Amino acid sequence: MLRAVFYEGWRIGILGLLALLMLAPVTLPVTVLRELVQDRFDVSEMLTSLFMSINMVGAVVAAPLVSVLSDRIGRRRELVIGALLADAVCLFALAQTTSFAVFMGIRFLEGCAHITALSMLLGIATRSRGPEQRGRVMGLVGGGITLGVALGAPVGGVVGANDPIAPLLLGSALVTLAAVVSMLVLRDPTSAADEKSPQFADLVRMVNENRLLIAPLAFAFADRFTVGFFTTTFSLYLTRIHDLDPPRIGMLISAFMIPFALLSYPFGRLAESHSRVAMVCGGSLLYGIGTATLGWWSLDWLIGLMFVLGVTSAVMFVPSLVLTTDIAPDEIRTTAMGAFNAAGSLGFIVGPATGGFVSQAVARVADWESGYRAAFVVAGVSEIACVVLALPFLMRIARGGR
To answer: Which of 131, 200, 221, 297 could cysteine-pair with 343, CB 3.0–4.6 Å?
Structure first.
């Protein structure tokens, strides 16, 4: 029997703040990606895109392993603190002079540390309140995640306007601050002594008995797959086709991410009393259509499209998180959240690499504008396809009242 230790309201707020501090470094380098990677190391557009993928390779490796470990020993607070300190060291090391191979190796390790901290924070959040209030908690933490990503792009554009290394140093400082806040405020919301430690056989049985988890995990993959296009291909598209400087690129990305962040909590509350399935499917369809047509929008109208994409992202993001916690048994919920993060991380690995490959391949036979348009079509169609393929699983969830 789990002995619950629920978080007070102010501690829930701190969880959102920690999510913000953890995620801002993800997009701090986005607006200076060409200067930070391509120009600095004289590599191709494809290899530049891989900078945003390689840390997610580390995330895919680390997330499920660390989540299983945390479910067994229940020491999430210590894992959050240790992972944040390791992340700070890696970000600082990325700013130092080195070879491209070493640079990418450090980026891989940074991804391991980052996803460890984030998975543990989400594991704490899912247990910080009872099931009836889980939507608002995940909405607040999801809002912190997206607000961190949203603020990272414009801040990185300003900070990196004269020095592309500066966003990495700022990111190191932010995650160090997050580690200090975690030391002072975080606590495990359940007693480790009372918590059931699942065995490997328990995890296998969970997968066999909860195959409906495939649906939210598929959306986690598709959503992060498309986000990978926005953090790499979109930034490169704006510099090559529209010749925008880092601050203006940051403004456009923030037009997408800020409504996403600010609306995550309200839609999390809405998901407590309305169909999560309808929210996930409706939001995903609109988001997919907008993403697929992105390459044909003029620069004057692009900011409006980015705002709409941010709203539709908020509609679908938190309900997919809540669906995961609905379906997973309580004793392995952190493991399920680790799987959600791993699926998202896998999408983020494939997204930037696919965007770079498609745009470069099409550009060889046509031109760069056609290449970028083809890449955005691939991203948008993948989201629409996810709705079509996952709908049978989602309808079973809806019919089962889950």
So the answer is: 221
